[in-house]
Sequence to fold (854 residues):
Amino acid sequence: MEALLLNVVGKLGPAMEAPLRLAVESMSFWERIQPPEDITTNGHLIMWLFNYTTWVNLFWFALVCIGLFGFSWFYSAKRHKKPLYTHGTDKQHYMITAGIGVLVFLSVDMVITKVSTNDMKNVFWQFPDQEPDIVRVQILAQQWMWNIRYAGADGEFNTGDDVVTNNDLRVPVGKKVLVELTAKDVIHAFYLPNARIKADAIPGRLAKIWFDTNKTGTYEIACAEMCGAHHYLMRGVMTVLTQEDYDRWKSETEKIAIATNDQESPDLRWGWKWGNF
Amino acid sequence: MAFLEQHIHEAPTSFWSKYVISFDHKVIAKQFLWYGIFWLLVGGLMAMMIRWTLAFPGTPFPLIGHMLFPHSGGIVPPDTYAMLFTLHGTIMIFFAITPILNGAFANYCIPLMIGARDMIFPTLNMLSFWFAMASGGVLLASMCLPLGAAAGGWTSYPTLSTLMGQPGAGQTMWLVSLFLFGISSTMGAINYITTVITLRAPGMDYFKMPLTIWGMWLTAVLNAIFVPVLGAGLLLLIFDRVFGTTFFLAGAAATSGKGDPVLFQHVFWIFGHPEVYILILPAWGIVSDLLSFFARKPAFGYKTTALSMTAITILSTVVYGHHMYTTQMSPLLTQSFMTLTMLISIPSAVFYANWLGTIWKGSIRFTSPMLFSLGVVFVFGLGGLTGLYLASTSIDLYLHDTYFVVGHFHYTMAASVLLGGFAATYFWFPKMFGTMMDERLAKWHFWCTIFPLNGIFTGMMLVGYAGMHRRIYNPFIYEFTQKLMPINTFITLSAVAMGLAQIIFVWNFVKSVFFNKEKASDNPWDVGTLEWTVPSPAPVHNFDEIPHVKCGPHELGNPNLTTGRDFQYQTEELVKA
Fold:
């Protein structure tokens, strides 16, 4: 496999070489299939439920395989000439089937549904609207980029001093970030693999999503909803800064915004009053 | 119950009336089968191009790349890539799988297995096929347009599928094509429902019908109810594109008035979720029967299997919202949809228990239809269980629109349905064409298919778990997908292997239809359902005498039999001790 890929590297020329080398550099299979690093305080909830579901699935699938392969082996016509004549309608047959049904209900419906609902109710749907010390960001998705808006020095959105960036989201570590999200042209989806969340950006609708971070660094923003031929190029970058770095960046860009924002440009006015779409 | 009188019509003699405009359900079934296999190959080739692009981005597609994409030096361009995955989905769902299981086998099996001379509405049946042909023709033509075919994904969400995202006529033709296909499906569905209700032979109670018929009948019910919903959605989208209405427009696309793009998603998935059961229910029914036939033992818990399938059919109509968690519906709706979706696990567990109960203490004959049926048990197990992750709203926050979803739905409605379709083809082939397919090639086909198939779809789930999102043209753009490259290459190589394995099937099929001179016996598999009581291939009027049904479809291995056979025909009185 790797030899084949390296062969491709040779044909592609220097532009693609670095990423391809990265792709084939030695890494165990287990490392390779791990999700991107979790940089939030709540992402582990999703991963916990994922892992629980995996164990439940392994249990049930093991049972299926034991039945499937075991019965195929022991009851092949060669080994087992005389089949048992039963319609599976005895009382004990029904009991076994019903027992399996109940066990599925307990392990699947009662746990996964319950935990999932609790996580959504207690965490992911608990928008920090009312909390004073959060970062508010408005994002407008368009083909094929992310327009990102911070309220400028006046703390109001859609005013002349807003800080507006393209594909460049910066947040301070440890703070809750509340995003108001919509799209200009077609449906996109704001996807932060490192935060385990995504939300559709739909024209004419305002979506809300929140997350926090516990690790500085640069992470990727992807568009998860098919949005046209260049959907794959709709990549943004989220930089998680320390509070000081963030404050410095914020005050510098606010000054730049006041100095250079073209007040006549319609591009400056795509925002909306916070919460008032 | 009064039985409709069914006349024996004279066999058509001219080529035209025999093979083209045929009213005979068996000929229409074969027409649908050829139609489905043709589109299966087209859709499969598209899958190869998609996979090639993902594994070897920027390299020309081998052999035919330079011919198909001369302007990009044989490399699949990004816009063509979007068309390819759009058409791959559309073709596989509507033009390959539906015609094979729902067009071909439902058409073939329903009258023969319930003891009828034909469908109740032969003209409707004929029209159903020719509407499907028209629909396929429109789709083929749309690929030849200057701006190309539809490229908004098989779900074609507005506003991407409105003039703003798809200015070409390809999207409109896609809509028209699917609308025509909807007409075809609805006609078929009405026919199947009515035929099963009115033309069952005397004595054929609902609980004496083979489970194949149960699956096909439930499918027809879903088709009749929900395909018109899709039709309505398609029509409104056509209006938006052609007549300037604004049902689904918002944002920059809405220059006059304002609608809501999410409305289309609701309409689409009200149809779309039952649609996945439309695809899988016939396969479930077929597998339930074949497991019993080849384990030489009655179907375990026949009634509970039939009722579980019915329960799933009913539940499938009220769970569609799980496709739309990320649109941020109200929490109440989201939770309701999750709870209802999870409930499907219970009837599924019941019929899985019954499937395994059927082969338990059987005397299993590993013929090719049986191998493929056991394959369905394996792959649908994986497909069904991985649905649990996606049904959960919180896990879906991460996995929505990733390859995990792609792997999951391919396991359920591609792998399972494909294997079920192959099982059906190998099983009913002697009755359809009068010859047997080559059993040795069929087994080769099975083993060469099952391993790469699992390689493909398990690989997809792994890259999806690692975060790789769907419908991206070049996975090198993102850092978190770069490390997945070797797995993507592995998936592609598996896909090539599976694609090549289908050559065995096509060769076997063509060889057996045209060159095999050896006649099949009337009942090569030793099975007691009604279609095996008539000669192979089945005569034009099916039954000289309408049979009287006296026992269930799975009377195998009865120790009290004295006939020298280990099974009973459904026309025989149940032998008791």
In short: Residues 78-114 of chain B form the longest helix (37 residues). Chain B is about 65% helix and 0% strand. The radius of gyration of chain B is 24 Å. The mean pLDDT of chain B is 94.
